[in-house]
Amino acid sequence: MLRATLKSLAARKLRLGMSAFAIVIGVAFVVGSYVFTDTLNRTFNDIFGDLSADVVVRPATPEGQESWATLAGAGSSVTIPAQTVEEIGALPEVASADGEIESSSLYVLDRDGDVVGVAGAPGVAVNWYEEPTSDDEDPVLDLVEGRAPERSGEVALDDQTIDTTGYQIGDEIPMVTLGDQPRITAELVGVVRFGESGSLAGATLAAFDTATAQELFLDGENAFNRVSVTAAEGVDAESLRDTVAGLLPDNLEAMTGEAVDDETASAVEEGLGFFNTFLLIFAAIALFVGIFLILNTFSILVAQRSQEMALFRALGASRRQVTRSVMLEAVVVGLVGATLGLLLGLAVAVGLQAIFAAFGMDFGGGLVLQPRTVIVAYVVGVLVTMVAAFVPARRASKVPPVAAMRDDVVLPSSSRRNHVLSGGVLVVGGAAAMAAGLLDIAPSAAVFVGLGILAVFIGVALLAPVISVPIVRVIAGWYPKTFGTVGRLAKENALRNPRRTAATASALMIGLALVSSISVVGASANKSIDEALDRGMNAEFVIASVSGQPFSPAIADAAREIDGVSTVAVMRGSFAVIDGSQSYLSAVDPDAFNEASELTMVEGTMDLSGGGLIVDSDTADSENLAVGDTVPLDLGGSRTEQPVAGVYDGDHPLMSGYVTGLQTLEELGITPADSTVYVVTESGADLGHVQADLEEATSELPMVTVQNQEEYKASQRDQVNQLLYIVYALLGLGIVIAILGIVNTLALSVMERTREVGLLRAVGLSRRQLRTTIRLESVAIAVLGAVLGIGLGLIFGVSLQRAVADEGLDTLSVPFGQLITFVILAALVGILAAAWPARRAAKLDVLRAINTE
Amino acid sequence: MTTHTHDQPAAATAVELTKIYGSGDTEVVALDHVDVEFAAGNFTAIMGPSGSGKSTLMHCMAALDAPTSGKVYIGDIELSSLNDKDLTRTRRDRLGFIFQAFNLVPTLNAKENITLPLDIAGKDVDSEWFDTVIRTVGLSDRLKHKPSELSGGQQQRVACARALVSKPDIIFADEPTGNLDSRSGAEILAFLRNSVRELGQTIVMVTHDPGAAAYADRVLFLGDGRIVDEMAEPTAEKVLERMKNFDTIGQVS
Asked: Which residue ranges traverse the bilayer (chain A) (predicted)?
């Protein structure tokens, strides 16, 4: 008897352990997100923090903007003449004033001619100068080997780049710039180290002497991008700033280095905050799915122990005491789960660090575990478990004391009508909230949609015991015919406890609903892009750089010379503050671009030869712009007002927002560099030849690729798909938890049916047949979850697509093949989930099983 | 004591059957070199006090438990030479079971429960035989009912029908009337006896009720893992008398 008790206790531990596993995964996700972003934050702070000199002079922050650092990717066209630097240096309060030149598009090539560094990361180039250092401070750039670059044709590289490429002092280093001669080489004369850790988070750094840097990045102008001012002995930064500011024209500003560093730090934090929130949303989904698993486990355990509960009640325990005993169990499970989750989360962060390091983004140093992370882990772990255990705990307390004396205890359960009623209310309410969010009626759309989806999920889960019965009858309908009695048993078992089956399937439903709604949106996005390109793109070839960085106009010039090419249209642009808000200003030659992809003018003209800009109809509507209005532009210090020359139809595959002429953009101080080049061929041209010639023309620049229409469309689809795969992977966690839920439910059901299993085995059911029975039941549950989930996902996906149809997602595409694959995968998942419970059942000793109480 | 009935071929035979649970100090000898034959077409009752080994004997004979040593034959098949798969098949094709309780699969109706062993084996149901069995147990109007809709007596009758319908070589019944009131119990026992008399079925029944044993052709008495006595053409009074006597012997020894 003791053995039996110990055994059942051990078995229960296993059950509780499995439900704790849901908490472990969820908490690990939360912890991993926090630790990883905190670690990133530390790394970036190491890179950017404490970099600046006492006072920094730079182009004035665009009006209405908080800081330069929050302007993603913004650069300034304003330069600081050498004379100004000299004037600052001559001030008595100043120890030294060093002009700095900075470019973020000089790429170092490795020996194979490929770009070094992480795709998308900047290729930083600076001018080398001897930094004034005090004793307590390390220089930002430290020469660790060789000597500083002194003349044209010499370069120093950062030590990490040296490590990855294996270059040595004296080697000729190939590099790519935006200039007319995109490919340059220079002799490696020195190795520099950036900051203390040397980590550049995937970027590369090249240093030139000042004259060469001016030649390369400022068209030879004797000027700088920035001035670092070091205060003389006894001068404080604030007063120095004020003194320096007195010398500056309107388009420059002086700031204390501390203020600049703070700006950077808060921008980094904000950016990582978004990333963290993104990850935490998926952690929340995983935990939400976990709630179903825990709720189900506790329900089954409480049902199995109802006699024990009744005995407590008969012996005088109050309902509250019974509830509390179950809740206490939940707290223990939550604490254990949170602790393990915390440890696993740290492991996850280590893993992420390793993965990023493998891709060249080495975040040196240990992990950052803030007290906040630990607190969140325990609060989330315990709270989620308690929420999930509350309903079963309440139900346990409702066991009548008389049940202690009865054999067949049926737990009192809240009436089915109540469930249907509240489920229905939640579904309707949730749908209404979603609709309000999607139709932009509600004030905060995202919150409404999110809560709406949540309500629909809970509502459907409440309705599931009722609606699942007919669905399971259909899903398992073919079992008896195909598998005979075994199939019949499996079907009946799946229908036996609709609430349990439904709760188990609901967990899977959530993950699959999200996955399939995203797949509908993704497929619609792909199809919309395809159709828009089919309709609107005449260019046969598109030249663009892999990382999205602009490249030298020399490529477009070479393309114009190629036989069979009729028109080459380039697109340039710059981040800009337009009418007070951050935006992007594109620039094209309208006539050429019109050849590549027709622009339909709604109003006005597309002639930009005399300046001015055109704007798409959607922006014109939202910003209340019409032809003749003037728009203030601020491109980092160079401010101008441009008249609206025309409004073009916003439904255009390649262009959106504000567009100006190439000439105007250059006048605003933006170095000519193409972000995309569209090539239109003469009719009858040999496309194969043209493509080969284009590839020849771009061969100098490894990051620039030539794509024909099909390849271009595929690359556009790839971008969408890549995002989809990331989201799928993150949602995968919720699905893993749901699979565990199936395993758990099946194992518990098998335990409950031990005598039945014994009987079946006694009358001749073979082990194999028994396993098949359990597998089929599992498949029925999994497919039920898939059907419910995909059904909901279709509704969600289609509503999302409808809601954003105006914003380019105008074609609905339901990826039926993919959805059917999901159902098949769900069935396979069912078989997988049944493996362990089925093996356990098959291993049961027949005689012992029959005699189980 | 050994028993031999030579006038009919044996449906099941045990030779030197020994079953020992545990080892060392906790060793319990449940069966001690038991030799026994169950003749075909015979209704045998096994009696004995708790711990006498009567259930163990039946479990070993019915291929539900493996003996420590000795041999068990069902017909001419020796069980210890069979693997689990063949044991399962033997149970399915050659043996029938009636347990004290929980005889039926709750998700299947009466008819499905009755044909379960045949369905599992993928065999066709002999409908004439099925009708005969159903008539005999008197379940014609209850076939569509689920177990939960049947009384205890009806459930046991379904179990009997299930044991009979596959025409097994031998039916093992473990206290089949243990959970029933006396009237339902009597019905079941009469039915079991009739199936031996009229249908030629072989039945071995474990019971502790002298009244139930009186329905059998022969009663075996077990004590301390051995067959200590047997009785042909038993009556309840004779069996009760023997059991009392048996208790005295038990106390003496």
From this structure: 16-36, 278-303, 328-361, 373-391, 420-439, 445-472, 501-525, 723-751, 776-796, 816-838
Q: Does B89 contact A496 at a Cβ distance shorter than 8 Å? A: no
Q: Is residue B240 part of a domain?
A: yes
**Contacts of residue A769 in chain B, CB cutoff 8 Å?**
120
A86 and A228 share one domain: yes
Residues A266 and A248 in one domain: no
Q: Is residue A295 part of a domain?
A: yes
Question: In this structure, what DSSP letter does residue A16 have?
Answer: H
Residues A526 and A616 in one domain: no
Closest to B167 measured CA to CA, from B203, B139, B141? B203
- Measure in Å the smallest separation between the Cα of A765 and chain B Cα atoms: 6
Task: State yes or no: pLDDT of A152 exceeds 80.
Answer: yes
The answer for residues whose C-beta is within 8 angstroms of residue A69's C-beta and 6 or more apart is A263, A264, A266, A267, A268
- Beta carbons of B105 and A846 less than 8 Å apart: no
Q: Is residue A440 part of a domain?
A: no
Angle at A39 between CA A34 and CA A45, to 5 degrees: 125
Best residue in B104, B108, B114, B120 for a mutation probing chain A (most A CBs within 10 Å): B120
For residue A450, is pLDDT > 50? yes
The partner residue sitting opposite B105, judged by closest CB among A759, A766, A769, is A759
Q: Is the torsion defined by CA of A174, A175, A181, A182 positive or negative?
A: positive
Give residue-wise pLDDT tens across range A216-238.
Answer: 888 888 888 888 888 888 888 88
Give percent above pLDDT 90 in chain B.
17
Last residue of a domain, one of A392, A411, A430: A411
Is B69 part of any domain?
A: yes
Asked if residue B3 is part of any domain, the answer here is no
Read off the pLDDT band of A7 (50, 70, 90): low
Which is nearest to A249 in space by CA: A76, A58, A68, A54?
Answer: A58
The CB density around residue A94, as the number of other CB atoms within 10 Å, is 20
Whether residues A674 and A604 fall in one domain: yes
Residues of B with CB under 8 A from a CB of A: 59, 64-65, 84-85, 88-89, 91-93, 97, 99, 102-108, 112, 116-117, 119-122, 162
Closest of B78, B76, B75 to residue B66, by C-alpha: B78
**Containing H/E element for B159?**
helix B152-165
Specify the amino acid at residue A413. Answer: S
Please give the pLDDT value at position A636: 66
Q: Which of A190-199, A438-447, A494-503, A798-807 has the lowest mean pLDDT?
A: A438-447
**Shared-domain flag, residues A200 and A326:** no
To the nearest 10 degrees (0 to 180), the angle between helices B152-165 and B182-199 is 20
Give the best residue of B56, B82, B109, B116 to mutate against chain A (max A CB count within 10 A). B116
**Beta bridge pairs of residue B213:** none
The boundaries of the domain holding residue A581 are: 550-702
Same domain, A187 and A152: yes
The single residue listed with the structure tokens 């579904």 is A427
Give how many domains chain A has, as a whole number: 4
Between CA A97 and CA A85 the distance in angstroms is 6
Cβ atoms of A29 and A283 closer than 8 Å: yes
Q: pLDDT by residue (tens digit) across B121-169?
A: 888 888 888 888 888 788 888 899 988 888 888 898 899 899 888 889 9
Are both A266 and A189 inside the same structural domain?
Answer: no
How many beta carbons lie within 10 A of that of residue A229, not counting itself?
Answer: 28
Identity of the residue numbered A221: E
For residue A461, pLDDT over 80 is answered with yes
Average pLDDT over chain B, rounded to an integer: 85
Lowest-confidence region among A380-389, B84-93, B106-115, B240-249? B240-249
Q: How many Å apart are CA A677 and CA A670, to the nearest integer?
A: 17
**Is A507 part of a structural domain of the chain?**
yes
Inter-chain contact A764–B122, Cβ cutoff 8 Å? no
**pLDDT given at position B46:** 93
B192, part of any domain: yes
